[in-house]
Amino acid sequence: MSSEYQSKGGKERAKRMSPERRSEIAKKAAEARWTSGLPEADFEGGFSIGDKKVDAAVLRDGRRIITQASFLRALGRSRSPKAGTGVLSTVDELPFFLQANVLKPFITNDLDMSTKTVFYRTRSGGKGVGYDATLIRQVADVYLRLKDHQLREKGEVQARYAKMIAAAESIKNALADVGIVALVDEATGYQDVRNRLALQEVFDAVLRKELAAWAKRFPDEFYKQIFRLRGWEWKGRHVNPPQIVAHYTNDFVYDRLAPGLRKELESRMPKTKSGNKKGRLHQLFTDDIGHPMLAQHVHMVTMFMKAAASWDEFKRNLDKVSPKQGENYELSINEP
User: Fold this and answer.
1) In a domain, 288, yes or no
2) Cβ 142 vs Cβ 107: under 8 Å
3) What is the mean pLDDT of residues 113-117?
4) In a shared domain, residues 55 and 175
5) Which range marks the domain in which residue 143 is found?
6) Count of domains in the chain?
7) Tens digit of each residue's pLDDT (9 = 90 or more) over 269-304
């Protein structure tokens, strides 16, 4: 089929589409180009600073991000990014909320060097714009230093900065409250209980109370790549693999999803009268949260195996990106 014919066919299909559908397709294509090669957000969520809701993300490289819109709301600003850029910055690359000349004497060199906008890909595949989360406290300090200066020099705060200064005080107070709670929790040992309670909430969302019907959750490629990297002959899933493959599955998957997750899975697994497991661990995952989380992780591990030239290379890369959660040790097992 000639490219000319395909082009004509595409144009005809486009003509039959509604304007809304064409706009949607164009938007998705633009977002795909825009987000190509950007760091990805593995976790997204929200919290409150005073009466302001803050949206945040943790990128795959570990950076904590507060979205640009949330950053502005928390600081009492409401201006939107310049059309087509998604960025609020000045010629000297300072973000919009630090561009006023009166603020410059209070901006440290470290802050000046760390205000670069962070572009990333959201979990839904869209474009994200934000700033390093630790900047919000430093920016609040700038506004509070301005407040102290104006009170000393003029005896009052200029009205145009009053809203931002009030927001900065709210940020500092809220973060101070979080800090003192963390100190009390650490001093009393409650942080361990708090962590266990938080994990239990995760387990209750991710895991079922009873076994679900069995369904295939690990693709053949996952096991095929294990065989390739170990130098074993692959004969398909109809042949039982070496027993150590079960250990690999625990190591690469269940031990890395969340701290204590495998222990929780083992405790929830129903047993026969003889003490054997009644099912597979993945049968305890919930459909709405557990299985998507498991599938995403298995896909990631499989991709790392496919990209590796050796078993050691794969293990090194996996340990860097997705270290084992909780107890970090290797079982002593004689491999075939």
Assistant:
1) yes
2) yes
3) 77
4) yes
5) 41-188
6) 2
7) 999 989 899 999 999 999 888 888 899 899 999 999
